[in-house]
Every structure is written in structure tokens, then in C-alpha cells.
Amino acid sequence: MTTVSIIIPCYNASSYIDNCLTRILKDELENKEIILVNDGSKDNTLTILKKYQKKYKEITVIDQVNSGQAIARNKALKKATGKYIMFVDIDDYICDNAIKIMYDYAEENKCDYVFSDYYEHYKEMDKIISNYFNEDIKKNAIVANFAPWAKLIARDLIDKINFSFCEGKIFEDIAVIPHLAASSENPGYISKPLYYYNMANVSTTRDKVYQKKFEDIIFVSDYLYEKLKKDELLEKYEEEIKYIYLDGILKSGVLKFAKYKEGIKNIKVLRKNVKKKFNKLFINKYFKNETFYRKFTAWSSVYLPANILYLMKKIKG
């Protein structure tokens, strides 16, 4: 039986493949499979992946035209045979034996969803990011980082809620991961970093012109809300879900829109969209211990006039 299926989308990743795959292949967990999806790379990514496939029986390579991470992950999910699923980004990498540690924890504690702390990897340092917010593991799972990585997910849970990523959208992770966590019956938390998120490869440059795709955050706001509402999770985890909307959806969307004159009107649209869903959005227990900067950016995303936000972003450059 396949223990864990590790799903990795790859796009123009030739300089990252060796580091990522070497660490996964070294992991001591037996009977794992690695599904690599080449998403229409223009460099020699596919050639390198095929070399690994030829050398290691646990590796499967899927080649597709460039379609985005969501389609790549969904395609791999259909092919995966593991009892558990793990997502890894090709430019990131795991800590030693991270897969075995998470698998053993899940099996011992009968967990259907395991998440851990992680490192933000910078060129000059590694910063530990904790996913601990309170003693309630389920609530921790919901408000933990919204990415699919640094998690081990039972296939039964994925099938139970008919989980898939939103295709053709950006911000697709936050549209589905909080709902997945909230749907788990017995989540588990490992309070040690098991994953390196490569901040050195996170682009800090802004798009030169406004993109229609930025408005996907409005779609995401409705999509996540409807899924949580359908499964009667909104009231049960109101504080956690408010935090997600304030910090992950409203703040992220507003600060993205504020970079562009064309985005000003959508700041108003997104604010109205989120405020219609929740009352007293900014009064939230998860912000009590936040830094002044995070509190200010969250407050400004709710209250500061859109034109002022745009001018601030323009001055900042």
C-alpha cells in the first residue's frame, strides 16, 4: 500500500529540482510515491524530471501544457494512490524525515490532517514560523498558514469533502485550505518546523499594469464562505473564519488593489463583500498579540479611504 503521495507542480524549476527531490527521496518513509507535474516549462525542467523518473521507481511524471498550479495539483490528486497526500512546491524543500515524522504522528494519533511549523528561508537566514495560536488544535489548523504545504492530509478526508483546488484562479489556496482544515475530524499539530518555504524566490516586484486576475480575491471571498456555510462551519468557528477574512482575504486583496489606480474601485467592492458577511470584523482575538505593523495594515484595509491607500502605495513606490 502506498503510504504518502507527494504532489509537486513544476514550472521552469530546473535550478530547484535537485535540492527538492533529493531531500524527499532521502526520507525514510517506505512505500511513498512522488508525482511531479511539469506545467509547460520552457526550460529543461521536463528533461530533468524524466531522468529522475527513470532512476527512481517511486517517481511519476505528468506533462501538461501550462495551465497553472491548481490544475496540476488536481490532475495529480486523481492519480495519487497514497493513504495520505502531501503537497510540496518545487522551489521549497522539506526537513530531514519530515514525511515519516508526519506519517508516524498521523498513524499513532489517528489524525486525518496534520500540520506543522515551518521555516521562512531567506538567503541570509532561516526564520521559524509557528502555527500555534491557542490550545485548540482544530482552531489552530483553521488559522494556520493557508498554503497546502507543511501538511499531511488523509485521502479519506479529501474524498469526503470532494476536495479540489479552484482552477484558473489566483489566491486559490485560501479558497479551499481553511475549509479543508475545518472539515477534519481529528487534526494533529507538530510544534516543530518541518518545511522550508523559499522566501528567496518570492518575487517582491509588482506587476507593471493592473491585471484582471487580481479580482479573483472577490471570487475567493464568496467561494470559501459558501463552502463553510454549506457545511455549517461558520458559527462554530466564527472567530477563526473572521481572522482568515480579515488577514488573508481583505487585507491581502486591499493591499494588492491599492497598488493600482484601477484597483481603487475594487477596494470598495471587496470591503463591502466581506463586511456583508461579518459584523465587527476587526474585533478579533487573534490580533491581540500581533505587531503594531500587522494591526495597522489590517486596520487600514478595513477603514482607510481607498484613495489614501493608493497615494500611500504610490509614494512608497
Plain-language structure description:
There is one protein chain. The protein is α/β, with parallel strands linked by helices and 317 residues long. It has two domains: 198 residues, Spore Coat Polysaccharide Biosynthesis Protein SpsA, Chain A; 105 residues. The protein contains twelve helices and nine strands. Strands 1, 2, 3, 4, 5, 6, 7, 8 and 9 form a nine-stranded mixed sheet that branches. Helix 1 links the parallel strand 1 and strand 2. The chain starts with a strand and ends with a helix.
How would you briefly describe this protein structure?
With 317 residues, the chain is of the alpha/beta class. It has helices at 17-26, 45-55, 69-79, 98-109, 137-143, 155-160, 172-183, 216-230, 238-257, 264-277, 292-303, 306-316, and strands at 4-10, 33-39, 59-64, 84-87, 93-94, 113-121, 126-129, 151-154, 187-198. Strands 1, 2, 3, 4, 5, 6, 7, 8 and 9 form a 9-stranded mixed sheet that branches.
